[in-house]
Specification:
The chain is an all-alpha fold. It folds into 2 domains: 67 residues; 31 residues. 67% of the residues lie in helices and 0% in strands. The protein contains 5 helices and no strands. It is elongated and about 85 Å long. This is Spore coat protein. Keywords: Capsid protein, Virion. Pfam families: Coat_F. InterPro entries: Spore_coat_CotF-like (IPR012851).
């Protein structure tokens, strides 16, 4: 008979992190539903679900942290690194705009030119009396 660990399709650390990620996603979905609900009862229901899920997500995070399977000491990004990434993103946007402009301006040269003349119509236009 297989033990609980052998029957699991993911190692415990991956499974816990997957569940944590799903709880975060669920909170986002509930928050969206809360902001879009026009009925006060539905809005309150999603508000309660959001709060309950946030509480569960916090408990899951602490469980993972206690087992040293989630690093809470994530290094903070340096302003210089953020500025560099921002500048690279701006350059990528500009290159994309330039490419689109270049390709859009050249569409006429790539347009299909027919190699035969216009065909006569197969049906005569109707005549009215």
């Amino acid at each position: 008979m297989a033990t609980q660990n052998e029957a699991s399709f993911l190692p415990q650390e991956e499974l816990l992190n997957f569940i944590l990620g799903e709880l975060k996603r669920t909170v986002r979905e509930y928050t969206t539903a809360t902001t879009e609900a026009s009925c006060p009862t539905v809005r309150q229901m999603f508000t309660n679900l959001t709060m309950d899920t946030l509480k569960l997500q916090g408990e899951m995070y602490h469980l993972i942290q206690q087992q040293n399977q989630y690093s809470a000491s994530i290094p903070h990004a340096l302003k210089m690194d953020v500025d560099k990434q921002h500048q690279q993103a701006q350059q990528t946007v500009q290159k994309t705009r330039d490419l689109i402009s270049q390709k859009s301006a050249g569409i006429g040269t790539f347009a299909h030119t027919p190699n035969v003349g216009e065909h006569p119509a197969n049906v005569s236009p109707p005549t009215y009396m």
